[in-house]
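Before going further, learn to read the protein records used in this course. The integers have meaning only within a learned vocabulary of local backbone shapes. The record below shows the convention in full.
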Amino acid sequence: MPDSADISSEDTPEYLSFKTQVKGTNIIEQTLLATDYLNHFNEIVMLLEMVPDMPEIIEEAKAWAPKSYPDHFRDSTFSDKDLAVAAYEHVPERYKKPFEQTISQIDRLIEAAVRRLEEVSAMDDIEHLRVTSTDYSRNIQRLMDFASGIIHGSQNTMDQNEIDHLLSD
């Protein structure tokens, strides 16, 4: 007989109940996560990509702030936002832990990008600004792709060397 530590969170009555509740919504049944959360990051990536053509937009990028998954949905117009918030408490750890780690890495990379773009913008070198903006945008998007994979049920994450490379200035 397995002890309680061996029971997967996917076997709990709460998880099974939420799996049923999310059917037919934009919340992934297997993970209880929704890709709509990534819109929070799409906004800042678009701003960062605009910096070379509109350097003043860095001020708007500086105003961007990380937002937790539940807070994003509480503040959104997502049709199933209450369900998304409630289901998040029951996301299996095998998805939730790598998801939260990836989101933390995205937040850190965005913070580094904004800081670096502000520095490069002050140098008045548009080409350097364009290259820096493109590099950060691609790296943030790469992490967002990992987050999307987790939302859809992948348990793959980046190894620490890849993460360190993305976060290095």
